[in-house]
Amino acid sequence: MNRTRTGGVGRSIDRMDRRVVLAMLGAGAACALTSAATAQALPVIGYLSPESPGPFASRVRAFHEGLAETGYVEGRNVAIDYRWADGRYDRLPALAAELAHRNVDVLVAPGGAPAALAAKAATSTITVVFEMGGDPVTLGVVDSMSRPGGNLTGVSSLSVEVSGKRLEFMRELLPGAGLFATVLNPTSPTAPSQLRSLQSAAEALGVRLHVLNASTEKEFEPIFSSLSTLGAAGLVFSSDPYFAFRSEMLAALAVRYAVPAITQTRDFALAGGVMSYGGDFSQSHRRAGIYAGRILRGEKPADLPVQQVTKVEMFVNLKAAAGLGLTVPQSLITGADVVIE
Q1: Which of 85, 137, 175, 322 is the most exposed place for a label (fewest CB within 10 A)?
Q2: What pairs with residue 309 in β-bridges?
Q3: What is the mean pLDDT of residues 240-263?
Q4: Average pLDDT, stretch 232-252?
């Protein structure tokens, strides 16, 4: 009898256990569905980069800082869907189309005109926030700076407009030189305007300019190795994301071939190049993050004028210059934002 009673109690306990387990499973499933719904409810930013994650890390960090200023943090209350072109501008249109097909809440296109133009072509309904160094009006990205029109707005810096100034600084470093070489990326939509700026600067300075093209890494070394044959005293790089994100490689080649060179980004001078002059990328990417957050909060692109980052920074590496047997003029040292000794 005791065994029968025990068995009855056991069966009752078994039934209770099953009910508890089923209830727990039901609760767990409900929690999972709630979590999934919450994850699905997060707004999504599509992030279209012309580069790879490694070289673009400092830019992404600045973007996140700006986004956080508006109250958005990736993984907490916003999701970010990244697309990387790995330095291949020809991949940008397809990647932009992927993000547009996902119907993201805002499409961010940082890192230059190629990304901005690809994003514009991909959608006329999703808001696009661009970040670029050139003039977005001249390039046809927006109608005007104050009233962008359509579905685009963003941030522009002065990196492209100051290409001619880099040639002036190189001439100041090498006052006796009569021939300089400049490198353009022929796949960049800003290449023609930058060439005009450089040619105007060369004419004003009374120097000759030899134009070289590069759009792949394998073309870099032949450029540096050919300068002595050309008789060019120094090398001026135009503004281009592809060049900017390969600063360490370019600096190493400048050291190996003993070439005085100047590029747009501080990374070049920090890596051992002689000089850099260009826009402050940390500010422009941070502001792009702020605009993305404001769009997510409901503001319209037509109400957000294109911002201009007017700060231009100059880095001078005295150690690199000394290694080339050059003495940097005091005027360049005084005008530099950062002097590396």
Answers
A1: 175
A2: 157
A3: 95
A4: 95
Mean pLDDT of 142-153: 91
Task: Please give the class, per CATH, of domain 163-278+313-340.
Answer: alpha beta
User: Minimum mean pLDDT among 90-94, 118-122, 136-140: which range?
Assistant: 136-140
Distances (CA, A) of 49 to 46, 258, 285, 295: 10, 33, 12, 19
Residue 330 to residues 26, 41, 173, 210, 333, Cα–Cα distance (Å):
75, 58, 10, 28, 5
The tens digit of pLDDT for each residue in 175-188 reads 999 999 999 999 98
Question: Which residue is it, tokens 């090398």?
Answer: 235
Could you tell me which CATH class the domain 41-159+281-311 is placed in? alpha beta
| Cross-strand pairs, 47 | 82, 108
Q: Is the pLDDT of residue 16 over 50?
A: no
Place of tokens 């990326």: 185
- Residue in the structure block whose two tokens are 């305007």: 193
Instruction: Give me the pLDDT at residue 309, please.
Output: 87
Nearest to 158 by CA among 127, 120, 190, 114: 190
Which pLDDT value is given to residue 101?
Answer: 97
Domain ranges within the chain, ordered by starting residue: 41-159+281-311, 163-278+313-340
**Confidence (pTM):** 0.78
- Equal fold, 41-159+281-311 vs 163-278+313-340: yes
